[in-house]
Specification:
With 165 residues, the protein is an alpha+beta fold. The chain folds into 2 domains: 30 residues, no CATH class; 118 residues, Hotdog Thioesterase (Thiol Ester Dehydrase, Chain A), CATH 3.10.129.10. The chain is built from 3 helices and 6 strands. It is globular and about 50 Å long.
Length: 165
Amino acid sequence: MTSDTGREAAPGNPSTEAEDLLVHIAAADRGGLGERMGMEWMEVTPQRVVARIPVHGNTQPFGLLHGGASAVLAESVGSVLANLNAGPGRFAVGVELSCAHHRSARDGFVTAVATPVSVGRSLVTSDIAVSDDGGRRICSARLTCFLRDAEGAGSAGTGPTARDS
């Protein structure tokens, strides 16, 4: 397998697989909300997913980070974490997101770190901490995702189908 960087991926090499997954996620988000928000994927494993967005361009009318931007960032990292834990032939769909906003930011970046709280057969719940560049928590979020079988489960199904819309 060759990544978008043109280098040959070593099968079973966790660092190469993680890099390839980062490239895949960034490519899949082209033209999507994450790209419009300037989302950068930094770490992607079944135990921890990290991404960040710039505050600039993601503010409300008073120049503060928009709470909805924190929620989008939190749901994005939590959703990727749930999908990494879904298992073969399965995918995750968000069913509940809760966010508590503790403070705001006016500049720099905010970074979200998602870790699993519970990984079961039908649900994955993630804890997400969104922090500013100084390490101060901006938002605490929790995302619960329902795990579904992909169409033709057991095959190489990797995501939702048109019927899931």
